[in-house]
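Hi support team,

I've been running sequence recovery on a batch of backbones for a student project. Most finish fine, but this one hangs at about 90% for roughly twenty minutes before it completes. I'm not sure whether the input is malformed or the queue is just slow. I've pasted the structure tokens below so you can try to reproduce it. Let me know if you need the job ID as well.

Thanks,
M.K.
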């Protein structure tokens, strides 16, 4: 299988072909090492990585972001927006396994990407007038025995069970940014596209740049927020990415949800 990123149209067609489940409905599913198909789904994937996924994996692997992006990802610039689309490269060996799968399971389990956590649910989002609008879809593949027996959960129970809430919150910020740029009708110019690449996918380089360029001196911000953004930790990375979304909106549109100029 050729692991090319799906186009936006292909992704939409795929999502629309899946059975939808309401937010209050339950589905029955569990996955653990005793299922006969254990690990079978961790191969031949077009696995999208969001900015939040990337810093979590970099932290887990203790890898600089540039090394991570070069070693593990395939990245292309979307001509419609100027933002990167990033997917995890499967190993180039028979069966094309995920680079992080092992006989005992996922080697990056605590920091596995959003798509792995969400499966077998798909979450479609769009920006509405009052915030994010969500739809949920069940991906029921023949090889997957997780539906044979399991626990009944609503989509939000499942996302909570899988530790997805901070992932979804950050991914929604990214979706908002992409949607706003699409709505503007023109892609980011080269300078903004490069800044987005750095700020969103290279937190370890963006953080020193914030300090070197004294970016905070131009912004109205709480001291606690500044301190957390500068902290070299998982929480600091999450705060830095949240700042990056605001910073990019401020640069592109002159305003942002939780950031303003002095
Ligand atoms: S990251 Fe982990 S859960 Fe996701 S495909 Fe790879 S091995 Fe499987
Ligand atoms: S139950 Fe489904 S998700 Fe779990 S290992 Fe099997 S194929 Fe993968």
């Amino acid at each position: 299988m050729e692991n090319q990123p799906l186009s936006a149209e292909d992704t939409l067609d795929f999502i629309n072909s899946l059975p939808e489940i309401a937010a209050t409905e339950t589905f029955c599913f569990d996955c653990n090492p005793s299922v006969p198909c254990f690990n079978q789904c961790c191969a031949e994937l077009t696995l999208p990585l969001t900015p939040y996924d990337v810093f979590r994996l970099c932290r887990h692997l203790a890898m600089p972001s540039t090394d991570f992006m070069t070693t593990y990802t395939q990245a292309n610039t979307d001509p419609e927006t100027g933002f990167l689309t990033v997917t995890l490269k499967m190993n180039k060996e028979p069966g094309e396994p995920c680079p992080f799968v092992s006989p005992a399971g996922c080697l990056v389990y605590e920091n596995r990407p959003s798509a792995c956590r969400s499966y077998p649910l798909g979450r479609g989002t769009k920006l509405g007038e009052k915030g994010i609008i969500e739809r949920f879809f069940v991906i029921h593949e023949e090889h997957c025995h997780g539906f044979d027996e399991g626990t009944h959960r609503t989509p939000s129970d499942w996302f909570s069970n899988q530790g997805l809430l901070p992932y979804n919150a950050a991914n929604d910020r990214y979706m908002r940014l992409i949607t706003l740029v699409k709505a503007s009708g023109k892609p980011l110019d080269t300078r903004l596209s490069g800044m987005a690449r750095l700020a969103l996918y290279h937190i370890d380089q963006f953080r020193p740049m914030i300090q070197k360029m004294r970016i905070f001196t131009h912004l109205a911000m709480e001291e606690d927020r500044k301190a957390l953004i500068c902290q070299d930790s998982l929480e600091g990375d999450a705060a830095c990415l949240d700042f990056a979304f605001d910073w990019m909106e401020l640069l592109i549109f002159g305003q942002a949800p939780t950031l303003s100029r002095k």
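--
Follow-up from support: It reproduced on our side and the slowdown came from queue contention, not your input. Residues 8-174 form one domain. No action needed from you.
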